[in-house]
Design a protein that fits this description.
With about 120 residues, this protein is an alpha+beta fold. About 20% of the residues lie in helices and about 35% in strands. It contains two helices and nine strands; from the N terminus they run E-E-E-E-H-E-E-E-H-E-E. Strands 1, 2, 3, 4, 5, 6 and 7 form a seven-stranded mixed beta sheet that branches. It has a two-stranded antiparallel ribbon with strand order 8-9. Strand 2 and strand 3 form a beta hairpin. Helix 1 runs antiparallel to helix 2.
Amino acid sequence: MQVYYKRLIEGITTAAIIQNGGYHFVHMSVYEDGTIDCWKRISIDETAEQLKKGWLVTSVPEGGRLSIHGLGAFTVKNACWNFSNESYVEHIYGLVKNMNKEMIGLFQKRRNKRQNGKSTM
């Protein structure tokens, strides 16, 4: 028998750029449990990793095209960006901290572990 527990989790959106076959401006959802929706579900602790991998980016190079869904795509010329990777991580942590002062009950992605040749979650 399956049993479910449901609860309301507050969230907020913040500006983000996802690099996936181009640069895409999005309103990224950030939730009080540290869950982040950047076209895939990640934990707050994975934010720096996604910036390092280039899935999340804090700028678009000059000459690059930034797509804004429903509005258009724009060529970047002489832009001034607000965040470095480090300050963007701090920004995301600050958003979660504003919703969850004690930073308790944060989402942790379970990693696959190999035990006796079997993968577990």
